[in-house]
Design a protein that fits this description.
Elements (H helix, E strand, L loop, with lengths): L2 H17 L6 H13 L3 E7 L5 E8 L4 H10 L8 H6 L7 E2 L10 H9 L3 E11 L2 E10 L7 H27 L4 H11 L1 H4 L3 H11 L4 H8 L3 H15 L4 H15 L3
Antiparallel strand pairs: 1-2, 1-5, 3-4, 4-5
Helix pairs in contact: 1-2, 1-6, 2-6, 9-11, 10-11
Length: 263
């Protein structure tokens, strides 16, 4: 397929994510679009402000320990990312940076063990875009059961990369503008963080109200549902999050907020 045809198809494929910018549905809409484009299993987005700071902004897809990877990468592994030099060399570029093809030998033993062996990742593609002094680093992964990206899938991802990275940057600029509002921060956390991706909309609504101090009776009244339904949604949410108490729910949220505030 010619380059122009790739670009036209890319615009059509990524349009649902573009239309979801600024909405809670953006992460799942994005991963859905990426799966249609190239069967991407997981997507993670990191930001850089300066060479010694990183934050995990998005973690969506089929890697169960994605949240742990985000914490580890933002903590210190970003310093040994082999794409790091290419990312910062591209800071002056007006267009998104297309990063080198994945090869395990590019990574240190400790990096390979955590980010590929323990997480079951077998392949990745990546792109990055600078918006003023902030870089948005977008990673696309495949796990063992999917196999590596085929050449035509890599071509499709690279064709769509400028639109994807621009959409990601715009979405998180919206999120940053809303960051001062605690209620909005919680909503964005539930929308963007992988532990909460498995929850239904109603289960998220119940959890958000639990975190806001609502009793089960008050949650039922606020949502216009029965007390039995409110308790059922809470039970289902806790089961999906592998927790059994409100304190554990608070612990998950505090850990994720701390991760996203790392500078």
């Amino acid at each position: 397929m010619k380059a122009d045809a790739f670009r036209e198809q890319a615009i059509r494929d990524i349009m649902p994510a573009v239309l979801a910018i600024g909405r809670a549905s953006f992460p799942q809409t994005l991963i859905g679009a990426l799966r249609r484009i190239a069967d991407v299993g997981h997507c993670m987005v990191f930001s850089f402000r300066g060479e010694r700071s990183s934050r995990c902004l998005l973690d969506a897809g089929n890697i169960p320990i994605g949240g742990d990877l985000g914490v580890a990468y933002s903590g210190h592994f970003f310093l040994s990312d082999p794409n790091r030099d290419a990312i910062f060399e591209g800071q002056a570029a007006p267009a998104p940076v297309l990063l080198p093809t994945f090869a395990r030998r590019m990574y240190s033993d400790s990096y390979r063990k955590m980010f590929f062996e323990d997480s079951d990742i077998v392949d990745k593609c990546a792109t990055a875009i600078w918006v003023e002094d902030t870089c948005f680093y977008v990673n696309f992964y495949r796990i063992t059961s999917q196999g590596g990206f085929r050449r035509e899938e890599v071509q499709r991802l690279m064709a769509v990369a400028p639109a994807v990275s621009a959409a990601v940057a715009r979405h998180f600029q919206h999120a940053e503008a809303a960051d001062g509002d605690p209620a909005q921060r919680l909503k964005l956390l539930f929308a963007n963080a992988a532990p909460f991706a498995a929850l239904t909309g109603r289960e998220k609504e119940v959890c958000l109200r639990i975190l806001s101090g609502f009793s089960s009776e008050a949650i039922a009244s606020e949502l216009g549902i029965s007390l039995h339904s409110a308790l059922t949604y809470r039970k289902r949410a806790y089961e999906k999050l592998a927790i059994s108490s409100q304190n554990e729910l608070f612990a998950i949220v505090l850990r994720l907020m701390a991760t996203r505030s790392l500078n």
